[in-house]
Amino acid sequence: DAKTTQPNSMESNEEEPVHLPCNHSTISGTDYIHWYRQLPSQGPEYVIHGLTSNVNNRMASLAIAEDRKSSTLILHRATLRDAAVYYCILRARYSSASKIIFGSGTRLSIRP
Amino acid sequence: GAVVSQHPSRVICKSGTSVKIECRSLDFQATTMFWYRQFPKQSLMLMATSNEGSKATYEQGVEKDKFLINHASLTLSTLTVTSAHPEDSSFYICSAKGTGTGDETEAFFGQGTRLTVV
After folding, report:
1. Is residue A78 within 8 Å of residue A101, measured between CB atoms?
2. DSSP class of residue B87?
3. pLDDT digits over A72-85, tens only?
4. pLDDT tens sequence across B65-86
5. A45 in contact with B, Cβ within 8 Å
6. What is the pLDDT of residue A101?
7. Which residue is closest to B112 within chain A, CA to CA?
8. What percent of chain B has pLDDT over 70?
9. What is the pLDDT of residues A40-70, one digit of tens each?
10. Is B7 part of the contact surface with chain A (CB cutoff 8 Å)?
């Protein structure tokens, strides 16, 4: 899987939007962009994924740059429960590798 | 959505004993499961990939004789930490991939097992 780069940590205020950036300059045309998050003392959970177009779901939005070399996970209204480590991962379509290799992710803190 | 369950969620064992951790896919069949280890304030580190009915594939630096993996059915994989030592204390997490699902689809993770070796 291609490498991603994320800031080590970010802070935000409760009830404000949060934009978590991810750079993936070596992304290939068949790589999907996935986001997972890990709450304290829990396993990772899926947040969202996309290929080229921006994506929305009940948890978040994913904005993908036109050249696909970067993306941004958007939490529209952060709550204290959104405090977690967020991982941006590339998953190759039709890959036989299957395994997910985690980078260091972004530790998001939410101020009340 | 699909659920992956790990058991136990916490375990304390004495040094030198073995501990078994179970990972079950509750509502789907998982041909492939993955085992990760996570130390405090660090990211998840992939230990091994287990495929139903065949031997596990271990990542470089992971001792296969110490971390025994068995994937005997399409819904169950087990990780046994043999002759545990305090340095094996960690958070162990499994992940499962459904049969026939592409790698671009979401992955499902267990809630993790906190192992403490005393």
Report:
1. no
2. G
3. 999 999 999 999 99
4. 999 999 989 899 999 999 999 9
5. yes
6. 87
7. A43
8. 92
9. 999 999 999 999 999 999 999 999 999 999 9
10. no
Task: Write phi, then psi, for A81 (nearest 5 degrees).
Answer: -75, -10
Rounded CA separation A26/A40 (Å): 30
Q: How far apart are CA B42 and CA B10, in angstroms?
A: 19
C-alpha separations of B49 from A22, A64, B94 in Å? 27, 30, 10
Residue B2 contacts A where some CB pair is shorter than 8 Å = no
DSSP character for B20?
A: E
CA distance B114 to B10: 5
Supply the pLDDT for residue A1: 55
CA distance B34 to A68: 28
Copy the structure tokens of residue B92.
């162990």
Closest CA to B22 of B3, B6, B46: B6
